[in-house]
Amino acid sequence: MRLCLSQPVLGPLSLEVKNYSATTHFILLGFSTRPAFQMLLFCVFLVVYLITLLENFLIILAIRSNAQLHKPMYFFLSHLSFLEMWYVTIISPKMLVDFLSHDKSISFNGCMAQLYFFVTFVCTEYILLAVMAFDRYTAICNPLRYPVIMTPRVCGTLAGGCWLCGLITAMIKMVFIARLYYCGTPHINHYFCDISPLLNVSCEDSSQAELVDFFLALMVIAVPLCVVVASYVTILTTILKIPSAQGRKKAFSTCTSHLTVVTLFYSTTLCTYANPKLMYTYSSNKLVSVLYTIIVPLLNPVIYCLRNHEVKAALKTILCRGNGSQKNSSE
């Protein structure tokens, strides 16, 4: 015990610690490719980003402007579209800039802010998808009580609860991740600040942050997933009891879009956040991240429009109005 407290042992240790300085910024390695391919990726991701914003904006506009879509299902869909507009915006602009710039650095505060909002949107979407599953369960399994249960006040409370849970979960994670010690200028082998790369470049033991992240991920992913599975098992049981084939088809058609979106989002994020530090050791992590940060937000509006006649009709009305106004202005 006396040896551990002696000056000769503490002296070199203190000098070694002094040689490290707390980081002020990170380097995002992104996609390490040739310059020509970087430009191609820039063009592709820019088009995808703009289309994603346009798709989700049109869905929100269609729901707000069409009285027939003022229903709980579309109310939650508008929140999902609004969420995904910000979801891609917190990642894509910085990624696009890095494609064209040699300086791929991001400040410590900028990195933590990006991580905080990204985790907020991911957690909010998990819970929102579970709320949407509960809405479909109530509409199909309790159709007579549906207007009484899913009142505007209840819908607003559920949507607000989704956002609040996302904000609180992200805040708790940030408390443990942001206080880790990062020395020098860490190079993050990713195209945005995510939990996995930050845990791996920390200069100190991150086991406590990993444990907190795993527990919160388990709560935010497993609990909503159980709600989704229980809802759809009950929905399927109820649909199979419908005597007519046409009735069964109509009832199930109201769920297929949401079920497809849930499958895409959960399947692409579950492996990443079930064990973040382990997943980060594989180079395929970037490709998986592209799926749920870029591709899924692009596909979700398309999935809902293709399977939903009411949304398609509302979008056609908006586009026809736009074409009509352009013709009138030209005349």
CATH homologous group name: Rhodopsin 7-helix transmembrane proteins
| Gross CATH architecture | Up-down Bundle
Question: What does the overall shape look like?
Answer: globular
Order of helices and strands: HEHHHEHHHEHHHHHH
CATH topology: Rhopdopsin 7-helix transmembrane proteins
Number of strands: 3
Instruction: Provide mean pLDDT, rounded.
Output: 83
Main features:
single chain, 331 residues, mainly alpha, Rhopdopsin 7-helix transmembrane proteins, 3-stranded mixed beta sheet, 13 helices, 3 strands, 77% helix, disordered N terminus
Outline of the structure:
With 331 residues, the protein is mainly α. The chain has 13 helices and 3 strands; from the N terminus they run αβαααβαααβαααααα.
Give your account of this protein's structure.
The protein is an all-alpha fold. It has one domain (24-312): Rhodopsin 7-helix transmembrane proteins (Rhopdopsin 7-helix transmembrane proteins). The protein has 13 helices and three strands, in the order H-E-H-H-H-E-H-H-H-E-H-H-H-H-H-H. Strands 2-1-3 form a three-stranded mixed β-sheet. The longest helix is centred in the middle third of the chain and has 34 residues, at 108-141. It starts with 6 loop residues before the first helix and ends with a helix. Residues 1-20 have low confidence and may be disordered.
Helices, strands, pairings?
Blueprint: H1 7-18, E1 25-28, H2 35-65, H3 72-89, H4 92-100, E2 105-107, H5 108-141, H6 146-149, H7 152-178, E3 187-188, H8 195-201, H9 207-240, H10 245-274, H11 276-279, H12 285-307, H13 309-330
Parallel strand pairs: 1-3
Antiparallel strand pairs: 1-2
Helix pairs in contact: 2-3, 2-4, 2-12, 2-13, 3-5, 3-12, 5-7, 5-9, 5-10, 7-9, 9-10, 10-12, 12-13
